[in-house]
Amino acid sequence: MNPGGAAGAAQAPVIGVLGSYGGFNIGDESILACVLGCLRAAHPDARLVVFSRNPAHTAAHHRHVDDVRGWEGISQQQMRESLSGLDLLVLGGGGILYDSEARRYLRLVGVAQDLGTRTFAYAVGAGPLREAEDLRTVRTVLAGMDDVVVRDDESRLVLEEAGVEREITVTADPAMMLAPEEFTRRMLRHEGVPPGTRLVAMSVREPGRAAEHLDVSDYHALLADVGDFLVRRLDAHVVFMPMERQDVRHAHAVLSHMTAPDRCRILHGEYRPAQLLGFMRHVDLAVGMRLHFLIFAALAGAPFLPLPYAGKVFDFARRLGAPALVGVAREQAGLLIAEVDRLWDEYPGRRAALAGRVAELRDLSRVTWGRCGALLADIEAARAGPPDRVAVPQLSTDVLAPPTADRAGPGAGVLARADGEADADPDST
Prior knowledge:
The protein is α/β, with parallel strands linked by helices. The chain has 13 helices and 13 strands. It has helices at 26-42, 55-61, 76-83, 102-114, 132-143, 153-161, 185-190, 216-234, 246-257, 273-280, 291-300, 311-320, 333-384, and strands at 14-18, 47-52, 67-70, 88-91, 94-97, 118-126, 147-150, 169-170, 198-203, 236-240, 264-266, 285-288, 304-306. Strands 1, 2, 3, 4, 5, 6, 7 and 8 form an eight-stranded parallel beta sheet that branches. A five-stranded parallel beta sheet has the order 11-10-9-12-13, sandwiched between helices. It is globular, with a radius of gyration of 21 Å. The two termini are 32 Å apart.
């Protein structure tokens, strides 16, 4: 293990982290930052290896990682070589167990299991799962994992319906542990956002596999109606927050339907997830589709209205007691506007309740780490031999403080610059 390392570091655990990482999606990058932060805080001496879809991006934007390895398109033998030497392979988090993708990720997990490596599912998301090969792979590989933790009840139900017969623990999305970085007034001016004005953040997305029933023209027009209403009702500026590249094109499509596009902006800079969370602290109201956009709004204490397109968004809205419409069809414009109006009026009285529910989800995120930490303690105890005196590491509440300058360069953990390029895996979060 860790050949060539210093003698004192020879016994440090080697932990692999596998997910949809590489800068394609802000949500996935926020998950990776939180998972790595928890692992590093509890095991400062651990050797952390990320299996990335874009190793160059991950190496550049997560500087505290010890090694980054590509995994797409490699042979079975190359997989075995890449996975050898790991004490633990962490799968996820994020929504990676869905049709056509589950088999790809779980192929690596299966190889790790064959090598005798312990495996842990870190608050993953699941669904939709309908394809026979994915269903078979999920049943087989998850049965052999040391522990399976999912981020919501919807994912647990999907796995149970897929035939997974084992304990499945429900916690919360790892990104609930993200700590904000400052989004300065200078950064706001750079984005063309006028100071001292009310801001409404909006999130849109492409249909894709995770939102296959979205009618594009309908929801573009629907959000345009909502945006125009908020400009008038609140005398606000609307700021679209792209969570991945393709969101930019859809934000422009919404703008093309609006009567007040001059009161709108689309964030175009390169930002860390923690900086976007910091931006959300300037926001007075958030309306959006993407899960991690809504998570950022909740963490920042901003009133938010989810636009559900998938079970994960419904589940998040339910857990936080947020209003959630059934779908995003154009004929629901009047209902959606009424919900936004009511949310704005009632939020001051609901702020404390929302803060309490957010704290509960953050505590559940720590449960995920507690289970992962227990598995690591078991691994270390087995390696040390009897007697078993290895304590489970404790995770403090401030382990995910913003990175210092020497820990992460500009754009660390961010989505690559939004330029309209196609996204290889748009639906992972």
